[in-house]
Every structure is written in structure tokens, then in C-alpha cells.
Amino acid sequence: MQDIKITYSEDLNGNLVHIDSAIKGSRYICPTCRKIMSVRISRLQIGEKYFRRPHYAHQKNSNCSPETVLHNLFKTKVAEYIQTKIDNKNNINFSWDCEYCKDTHSGNLIKKINSVKLEYYLGECTPDIALFDKDNNIIAVIEVVVTHKPEEKTLLYYKEHNIILIQIDLASFDDIDNLEVRLLKPNIVTLCVNPKCTKCGCPKLKLELNIISANCYRCHKEMKVASIYNSRYEIGHVYPESFLPSELELARQSGVIIKQSYSKTKHKSYNANVCPHCNAFIGSYFLFEDYIVPSVYGDYDHVTLNAGYTCLCDRDFT
Ligand SMILES: [Zn+2]
Ligand SMILES: [Zn+2]
Ligand SMILES: [Zn+2]
Ligand SMILES: [Zn+2]
Description:
Elements: E1 8-10, E2 16-18, E3 28-29, E4 36-40, E5 55-58, H1 66-87, E6 93-97, E7 104-108, E8 115-118, E9 129-132, E10 138-145, H2 152-160, E11 164-169, H3 174-177, H4 179-184, E12 188-189, E13 205-215, E14 222-229, E15 237-238, H5 245-253, E16 258-263, E17 268-274, E18 281-282, H6 284-296, E19 301-310
Parallel strand pairs: 10-11
Antiparallel strand pairs: 1-2, 3-4, 4-5, 6-7, 8-9, 9-10, 11-12, 13-14, 13-19, 14-15, 16-17, 17-18
Bound molecules: zinc ion (ZN) (4 copies).
One zinc ion (ZN) binds at residues 30, 32-33, 35, 58, 64, 69.
């Protein structure tokens, strides 16, 4: 963490004053520790050696750190911002990169939220901001991270109690000026909005079927091959041997020939892409090396079809 410079303090009337509006000789106090701050405005110009951005500074031997001031100020202002939006019946349309399904989701942050509380004690932990529904159930928490990420036991508590964690990582006081931007695209949101699997309860994954227009490795005539990719799968690619019936159907409708074929290396029969001209059978290794990789590099055209939502537990990877 680089040296954080404080750019906000309060005047004696309790108004926050940005350093650019500060008047030398006036008195300003730290919004966190309530002690007098000094105004540091460099006489040097930007770019000159020893130039430092104008900032407020604590007196010597203060034990109040700029990180703490940033953390407190940001969370207070975010809570105020959210409460104002609730009071005015506005939406807060935010979006996030889902860690579970790897898609980007979006939604109204305060759709079900009725009230906001700072530092709400939950026994195991005290989230920076807690968001409650109209029945006073805690729905989500916002953790503002300057130096300390939430502890493992805190994350576990949220998970076990179905509390959505929204994490915003801060780097400097510029984040105060960009509060709305930071809130509308948090660093982490532990919510996947995909439909849930009725068997295992996990969110399903939205998959795309790739149909690659290629040439048969054996007869070199045109053929189509099918595969599925989703970064959520550890193996990344799903080959016809693990396709669901609906995916086999979709591939066949697109002109792909998929047949049960016997593999001498695997000592079993399984579904694979087959050349319509010479009946050559493409096992998963060659499907990847000779068809998927070239299509990624643009050597082969491919189209992607929506294969719908499916769950990991639906699929047989053996
Ligand atoms: Zn302070
Ligand atoms: Zn998701
Ligand atoms: Zn499932
Ligand atoms: Zn062929």
C-alpha cells in the first residue's frame, strides 16, 4: 500500500472540506479522531522535485492513520448514499463479475432493501455496512477494504447465513470522489443470479455450443465439429462424450454428425464427432488440438449457439 494522503477534513461546522477548497489558517478536524489537522499545500508545482499533492495531515504522534480515515469516510458516505436512494425510492443499478459462473450480472442493489446500518454487530463479525429488508432480515453486507480483507470465519458466516457479500477495495482518497463508480461495480459480489439446480441447489451455468466448420483430418473434406466451453469447468471444454441429450440434438440440427464410436485407447464406446464423408472419428485429444485450437486462432470459422442453463451435476464426465 502506497502512502495515502488525506484529502478530506471537517471544518468547525462539521462540513467536509476537500483540500482544494481548504483555506490556510482555518481550522479543520479529522472526521475520525476529531483532532486538529494541518493543511499541507506545497508551493512547488506538479512535476517539480519534492512536489506532493496538497493534503491534510495529523499532528505528530497521532495514532489515527490515513487508512482508517479513508475506510471510515467511504463507508459513512456509502451508507448515506444508499439510505438517500432508498428514501427517494430510486434504484441503484450495479453490476459485477460473478466468481461462480464467470458471467457479468447486474441488478438493483436496493430492490429488497429497506434500511442500512453501519457497524452492525452480528456476534461473529461486524460488517462495515449491513443491508436489511422490510422484515429486518439482513440480506447483504458491504465490506470496504483498505488494508484488511474480511477474515475467513467472517466469509464463512456470511455464506452459512445466506448473506451476500459486496466487497469494495479502496486505494486512495480519489475513491471518495468516485464513490458512485466504485459502488456500482464492486470488486466482489458473492451472488450468482443464474437459475438454481433443483438437485444440488447450485446456480446453473449458461453454456454455449461451438460449431466449428473445419476439414476432416483424414479426407480433408468439409465437416462440422461440436464442442462446449465454459471456464467454470476445470477442464474448460466439454466434448460430445459428455454432452446432454439436448446438446446432442442441437449439434445434430446444425449438421454435426455425432456417433457412438469405439476407442481402442479408452476400451469403450462413446459419442464423438464423425466425418460425414470418410467416417473418421475425432477423439477428444484431436478435437482440442486440431479443431478447437485452430478455431480460437481464427483458422476455422465457428458459430456459438445458446445451449441453455445446465448444472455440473447433470453431466457425466467419466
Ligand atoms: Zn484522525
Ligand atoms: Zn453467476
Ligand atoms: Zn446440480
Ligand atoms: Zn473425412
